[in-house]
Amino acid sequence: xxxxxxxxxxxxxxxxxxxxxxxxxxxxxxxxxxxxxxxxxxxxxxxxxxxxxxxxxxxxxxxxxxxxxxxxxxxxxxxxxxxxxxxxxxxxxxxxxxxxxxxxxxxxxxxxxxxxxxxxxxxxxxxxxxxxxxxxxxxxxxxxxxxxxxxxxxxxxxxxxxxxxxxxxxxxxxxxxxxxxxxxxxxxxxxxxxxxxxxxxxxxxxxxxxxxxxxxxxxxxxxxxxxxxxxxxxxxxxxxxxxxxxxxxxxxxxxxxxxxxxxxxxxxxxxxxxxxxxxxxxxxxxxxxxxxxxxxxxxxxxxxxxxxxxxxxxxxxxxxxxxxxxxxxxxxxxxxxxxxxxxxxxxxxxxxxxxxxxxxxxxxxxxxxxxxxxxxxxxxxxxxxxxxxxxxxxxxxxxxxxxxxxxxxxxxxxxxxxxxxxxxxxxxxxxxxxxxxxxxxxxxxxxxxxxxxxxxxxxxxxxxxxxxxxxxxxxxxxxxxxxxxxxxxxxxxxxxxxxxxxxxxxxxxxxxxxxxxxxxxxxxxxxxxxxxxxxxxxxxxxxxxxxxxxxxxxxxxxxxxxxxxxxxxxxxxxxxxxxxxxxxxxx
Length: 587
What we know:
- It is built from 7 helices and 34 strands.
- By secondary structure, it is mainly beta.
- The chain has 3 domains: 19-153, Cupredoxins -  blue copper proteins (Immunoglobulin-like), CATH 2.60.40; 155-327, Cupredoxins -  blue copper proteins (Immunoglobulin-like, Sandwich), CATH 2.60.40.420; 351-505, Immunoglobulin-like (Sandwich).
- The strands form 8 sheets. The chain has a 6-stranded mixed β-sheet, with no helix packed on it. It has a 5-stranded mixed β-sheet with strand order 1-4-9-8-6, with no helix packed on it. A 5-stranded mixed β-sheet has the order 12-20-19-14-17, with no helix packed on it.
- The longest helix is centred in the N-terminal third of the chain and has 13 residues, at 4-16.
- The radius of gyration is 23 Å and the shape is globular.
- Residues 36-153, 165-311, 380-506 form the Plastocyanin-like domain.
- Keywords: Copper, Disulfide bond, Glycoprotein, Metal-binding, Oxidoreductase, Signal.
- It comes from Neolentinus lepideus HHB14362 ss-1.
């Protein structure tokens, strides 16, 4: 039980902590997920934290590393989800789809008191990534942190002098209540946190994050949006930003004055510490369509401090400035192999799929409802899509119905995202994220019907689909990664309201690519079903398991066998029970 006295005591303690660099850990080790009370903006609340920290510790890896993270679920606070998964955002998971960490797509959640090791290779990927819960809306309550894969042979290494834990800059929204106690679509945010520190309106003047630089040096800053909802515009007084990376993909350098970053996106930019020694504001503001965080009357909100060595340890005195020369993603052109796959014309892919976005409103005030893609609302099945595939469920019968799109191997896929007026007015711009791939954005938001770029479009894994019915954002990628990959809005409240589909890629190859399946993965679903039938958990929205697996010809239902044996493939056993609360066992 978390008492008010303990909350106040911990708040005082948190306020006394001074700014520090992002803590970091190697890619092999343990992550203990716990409930602790923190006060990152001065207001104490219980949260879901990795090793008791927000953000979660930076994972520092090097190109070619193997990640082996044993995740321990030690959650106790039942005002929030206690089961969990971890998704490694932007990592392709080639031949390790089971480690993608998406509840009821690639695994069942890990239950309290149990552990699961995420074991996968990073291959040739480099750049800026992050990791977060992908179960219900849990990452909004704190389970989110940065992941960087360093490249010893970075082609841009001559452009900067410093690139380490001190140059990682996370930005996030923060609410004072657990997500389970918020409206379905929250209309406000209590504070913005930069590297886990911030202030709220009329709150105490807590310590802000300080980024320390030395005059004359150049820094590769890695800006990571670990936001649950808002997009942010970020700028630094007196300093330009030379962008070289978007979402783990290197691009030709582009110098701008400000960056708009959507939930899940990442940018690397070069910061030249060429200004007079002093303190400078790092500003942020929520972008159009995002829940606002209003400036406070007596202290800056939504900000951090860039401090030159030799400057006074005080806050800048400058008034809030206005962002100028905002980055447009159409300015970005990939450094390597810049052309989009397929033929350089509309419809020039092997398979062209139109995915219109809409919302079915239940109430206008407060706003509630479900999103649809192609007229279907995504609802998580009770048996993960990957498990269905491994047990031979045909493409036509994969659940959830109407939300799984089988894709052939080694083909170019084009996806378009037109929006109805309802969807355009419902919390847009929507940032769309595809797991398992980067993609070429052949038409960006805000461009016209004649503005397709097949020669050198921006390449990334999260794209804004705009806020207008005139937007028809279009992406292309190649099906070179077998497995079920979810595509969804990265505003987590929208995902919980059904804004997702699953792209089931190269189904015949899935079992071959993933062999052998780790034994502890096989035990996740039986353990979760038993836990979920015993404890009342506040799982929110359509990310929670709802749909039963496909009925067999004789009318019985399939559920996972809770007692897999070492070296076996995961088996299914028949039961006449239609709910997902009970599981029969083999003797």
